[in-house]
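Changelog note: in this version the structure field was regenerated for every chain. One regenerated record is shown below for reference.
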Amino acid sequence: MLNVFPIPAFQDNYIWALHNDRHSILVDPGDATPCLDYLEARELQLVAILNTHHHADHTGGNNQLAARYHSRIIGPATETIPAHTEKVTDNDTLSIPELGLQFQVIATPGHTLGHVSYYGANRLFCGDTLFACGCGRLFEGTPEMMLASLESLMQLPDSTEIFCAHEYTLSNIRFAKTVDRDNSTLNEREAAEKSKRQRGLPTLPSTLALEKATNPFLRCQEKALVQAAERYLKHPPRNTVETFAAIREMKNHFQ
């Protein structure tokens, strides 16, 4: 049986561990220490690390883990990844035979220029591209890039489970309620996610269907989001990219 477990790291990161009773892979191990604790407690052999992008809070554990386990280190071809052994690009197929898994690599630039996501077995590991009720900041890419990345992810099945890399859900929902004011599903989601956090549980994974219903960055063609962008811009947005860019800018300044 395949287990998928979030290893907490830093203030709000999740390092995703996928494993059977013998072998494991890790997605975005920014800190080696909690990963080593998890693997050693279960006597697991790390066979691969999947990195979505180069930021240190996603790759900081690579060198120590690679030295300990001599595992494959997989990441985007165009980014500098510590201990990199396999470079992947859009539409590559990635096999993890020890777990019987295959992943499709999806280019998702925006947060960084080379950011990739990994899709397999109805699970999407999307790093800092798509968050629960949010999306990543545009540190390197453009609004056009990020919107195109999100639109490509929206083509996946609605049942897809979304495994992102940060516990930002409640603050993202608070923002979403300011720009999608009449969306009753947001209130329902907020209550459900608050309950999880009060019980010490992660709000993840989400599903693509839930994101389509509540995530403002996937709803930029909806009237409420266009109107929110217009209030911010002081003129009607010319297109969906301008709506997205305005909503992203509003989120950047949201407290």
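Spot check on this record: The mean pLDDT is 98. DSSP finds nine helices and 14 strands in the chain.
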